[in-house]
Write a sequence for this structure.
């Protein structure tokens, strides 16, 4: 069986997705839980790596599992949750088509970058969002987001030193959603794209916010797209504000998905 | 000077408000920060105690501080934050009227009880909310909340063994606010009252949710109010879903409050 999982994790105390010696990683913890639950050593394939400190609400991974484990595929999640640490949970499980590969089959991914607006640190917000001193102007942020949507060479929006074949990526959509919940205000920046360069969403979020704050001219963002010059943009925003929301494969993987 | 602070804390790793030997408490950490920042040993008065695991977005406390500390009252927050652990922060500070007492002067308090609806634990929700298996019926929850609003003898809504002069309290208002944020759904139950018995909000939240789930008849809630029988109600909900949102003194304590 080609088992597939929908995963959520709190990245605060995790050293990212990929297995490392002497560090707690999502892949490492999952492979250990699979070994303990089913007695097999497998390699888990994620839709992509997430960095240390990055969270996930809808990461997807797959791994091979023998038939005849004695439980329906939809209950694999429960079997693994019994062995996973509390900061990692399988939300759903299923049997995927044999050719399904969580990484190569992915069509789109949506990441959320979250900030809250406050003069001083708020302990109830610090874990999953980053403080931004004052509320940026929404229209200026929207103008920056409009510029970034579409197919572009995003080499200026990538950590230096990363080597990829092409730095052209398509950003399908950027949604800016202000929120207010009774004691704090903030913004979700949801970025849906076909694929992302290393640190791309965190650099995009920083550019959008600094445009909104009037610290980065929109012309500088255009120049960064045109020239690929990382120096034209602001800083890379911290990992803890980033959450992988969902991975879209073009078809539903789990029973009841979308309900 | 009668210094007053607006406080937020993440209660997860705190043993509640009140000073205890060999335990991290909000009062203890505050008094230690005041000692380190200003070199004085004082007793801090909170608007009330919060239990181990309970969070605060707007706790208020006051303490005596000599004049001539060299910084304006609005900057006391920053001086203390330099010495407070990251799970406790002063959001605002000011000089209050001499007769102000954070406990005795309080007119109303608002607590929030937060739940999320999911079949399995969600690591990004578990810290500040409690999982409730399925979404309860809003109309039935509202009917229960309507019953609890007003002045009543809330002895059935109190942990057994607590001794107070009277168990009559006034609940000014209960707001039920469903939320949905792109990957999870839940409910905030905001309870504003003149004062609360021990565990009262956590027992009220449980009763409202169980009415909504059809597990507790509304007649049982009425009977609990009439008879004071704690056994008629459901369980006390866990501490981590509870947040002290605000304390109302009838006048603004901090510059820019309400903006």
């Amino acid at each position: 069986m080609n088992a597939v999982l929908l995963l959520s994790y709190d990245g605060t105390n995790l050293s990212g997705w990929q297995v490392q010696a002497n560090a707690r990683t999502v892949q490492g913890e999952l492979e250990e839980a699979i070994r303990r639950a089913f007695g097999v050593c497998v390699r888990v394939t994620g839709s992509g790596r997430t960095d240390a400190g990055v969270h996930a609400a809808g990461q997807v991974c797959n791994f091979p599992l023998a038939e005849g484990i004695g439980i329906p595929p939809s209950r694999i999640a429960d079997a693994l949750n019994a062995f996973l640490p509390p900061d990692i949970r399988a939300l759903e499980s299923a049997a995927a088509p044999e050719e399904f590969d969580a990484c190569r089959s992915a069509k789109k991914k949506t990441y959320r970058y979250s900030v809250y607006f406050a003069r001083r640190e708020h302990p109830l917000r610090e874990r999953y969002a980053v403080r931004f001193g004052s509320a940026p102007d929404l229209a200026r942020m929207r103008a920056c987001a409009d510029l970034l949507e579409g197919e572009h060479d995003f080499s200026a929006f990538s950590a230096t030193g990363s080597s990829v074949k092409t730095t052209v990526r398509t950003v399908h959509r950027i949604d800016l959603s202000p929120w207010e919940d009774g004691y704090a205000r903030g913004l979700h920046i949801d970025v849906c794209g076909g694929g992302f360069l290393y640190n791309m969403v965190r650099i995009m979020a920083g550019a959008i916010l600094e445009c909104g704050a009037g610290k980065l001219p929109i012309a500088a963002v255009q120049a960064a797209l045109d020239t690929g010059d990382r120096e034209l943009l602001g800083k890379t925003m911290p990992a803890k504000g980033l959450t992988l929301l969902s991975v879209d494969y073009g078809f539903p993987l789990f029973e009841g998905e979308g309900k």
Observations:
- Chain A has two domains: 2-105, 108-245.
- The two ends of chain A are 25 Å apart (CA to CA).
- The longest helix of chain A spans residues 26-38.
